[in-house]
């Protein structure tokens, strides 16, 4: 794979970040470390290892940039605090995620926890924080998988209650369904859809007959073939491929981890199954996954939460989405990935809430400040209490924009091309949906 040439000047960007902080009034936010007698401890949990590790690939870069921006301390009212970030690896395991969160709270004495990497990491972290009454901000999972799945009785909407300490922002199932169908309706198909829904938080939500894909697709005239749940890291998709061929499914959708999609797609090609459209979430977010497919990845599609072309900038540093992505490419020698913007935004929301709470040692005050967030970030506006979210979840949930894109092979490298923006017209399209070759 060819290394991306960005023309990025690390020193120039760091100087630009400093200038942006000053221009945005950042000198009232950060202060001289010599006066920082107190410390704010923030816990950060992500899957640094295991099958979800791609979501944490850019962690070192984003955390490093934040530490540089906050090196002189954080000014809250008349006090200046040093900021210490304590990281933990969930190992892509829900039990481990809960365990390390407990460590952060009881051993490391953090006052705030940040997390952003699928329900398997987010939910146990958020649940532990709610139990311990420690504020938590999460992202990178459809909001239903966070709010509904963590209820005492997810199947009974009348019993659902808001949370006091845990807050989540991202798009919802309604958004990804709208994006996927918006892409599918741009091309001619028989509207027969094969579903890859694993037995995990995402798969169970996407396949839910009430809040997931089935009822919406039925209303739009699509026929869904769902062979049932499968375990992550499955090595044989023969049953699914057979079911899809039997239903003449010209569209394949789903939400699978990267290694599982590679297995499914390779086996599909070997068995001669060639759908016209493949729109799969999670796995196809990452250029490394698509690159591994060779030429057969051309025109595969996915949801797109963040790109360098998104018209947003950081509230913390003033850096644009484009420059943030370039910074990662230059530092790592790898292509940008979508989680970069969202991991960065976690720290934007955290600092904004800490600033408004005044006292970081008061968990209830900090939780209240998080719930009052109305902030323009590098991933777009984040506002809790918005009418964009159903009333029952509005206290704890904020939505971010979502578009759809296809991976297009350009020489030996894949680029994502935005082809659907019906729900977020502020994010420009760069082409039209095409069928798989």
Keywords:
437 residues, alpha/beta, 14 helices, 19% strand
Share of β-strand residues: 15-25%
- H and E string: HEHEEHEHEHEHEHHEHEHEHEHHHEEEEE
* Helix/strand/pairing category: alpha/beta
Number of DSSP E strands: 16
Largest sheet: 7 strands, mixed
Mean pLDDT: 90
Report the radius of gyration as a whole number of Å: 21 Å
Distance between the termini: 21 Å
| Order of adjacent strands in the largest pleated sheet | 2-3-1-4-5-6-14
Helicity range: 25-40%
The tally of helices reads: 14
What does the overall shape look like? globular
Task: Detail the poorly predicted runs.
Answer: 1-28
Structure summarized in a few sentences:
With 437 residues, the chain is α/β, with parallel strands linked by helices. Helix content is 34%, strand content 19%. The strands form four sheets. A seven-stranded mixed beta sheet has the order 2-3-1-4-5-6-14, with helices on both faces.
């Amino acid at each position: 794979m060819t290394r991306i040439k960005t023309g990025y000047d690390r020193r120039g960007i760091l100087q630009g970040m400093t200038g942006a902080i000053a221009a945005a009034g950042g000198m009232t936010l950060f202060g001289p470390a010599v006066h920082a007698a107190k410390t704010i401890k923030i816990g950060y949990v992500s899957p640094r290892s295991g099958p979800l590790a791609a979501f944490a690939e850019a962690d070192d870069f984003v955390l490093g940039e934040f530490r540089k921006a906050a090196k002189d301390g954080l000014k809250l009212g008349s006090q200046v605090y040093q900021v210490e970030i304590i990281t933990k690896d969930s190992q892509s395991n829900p039990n481990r995620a809960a365990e390390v969160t407990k460590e952060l709270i009881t051993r490391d004495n953090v006052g705030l926890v940040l997390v952003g990497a699928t329900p398997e990491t987010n939910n146990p972290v958020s649940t532990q924080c709610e139990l311990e009454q420690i504020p938590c901000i999460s992202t990178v999972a459809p909001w239903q998988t966070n709010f509904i799945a963590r209820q005492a009785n997810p199947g009974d909407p009348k019993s659902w209650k808001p949370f006091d300490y845990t807050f989540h922002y991202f798009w919802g199932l309604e958004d990804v369904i709208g994006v996927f169908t918006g892409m599918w309706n741009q091309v001619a198909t028989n509207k027969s859809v094969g579903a890859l829904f694993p037995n995990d938080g995402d798969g169970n939500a996407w396949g839910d007959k009430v809040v997931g894909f089935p009822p919406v697709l039925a209303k739009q005239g699509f026929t869904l073939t769902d062979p049932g749940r499968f375990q992550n890291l499955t090595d044989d998709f023969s049953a699914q491929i057979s079911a899809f061929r039997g239903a003449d499914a010209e569209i394949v959708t789903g939400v699978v981890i990267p290694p599982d999609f590679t297995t499914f797609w390779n086996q599909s090609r070997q068995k001669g199954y060639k759908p016209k459209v493949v729109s799969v979430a999670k796995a196809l977010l990452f250029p490394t996954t698509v690159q591994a497919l060779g030429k057969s990845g051309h025109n595969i599609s996915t949801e797109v939460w963040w790109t360098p072309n998104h018209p947003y900038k950081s509230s913390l540093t003033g850096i644009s989405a484009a420059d943030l992505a370039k910074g990662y490419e230059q530092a790592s020698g790898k292509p940008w990935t979508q989680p970069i913007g969202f991991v960065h935004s976690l720290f934007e929301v955290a600092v904004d809430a800490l600033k408004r709470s005044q006292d970081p040692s008061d968990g209830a005050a900090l939780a209240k400040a998080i719930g009052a967030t109305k902030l323009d970030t590098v991933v777009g506006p984040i506002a809790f209490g918005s009418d964009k979210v159903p009333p029952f979840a509005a206290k704890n949930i904020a939505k971010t924009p979502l578009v759809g894109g296809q991976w297009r092979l350009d020489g030996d490298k894949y680029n994502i091309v935005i082809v659907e923006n019906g729900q977020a017209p502020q994010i420009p399209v760069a082409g039209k949906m095409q069928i798989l070759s």
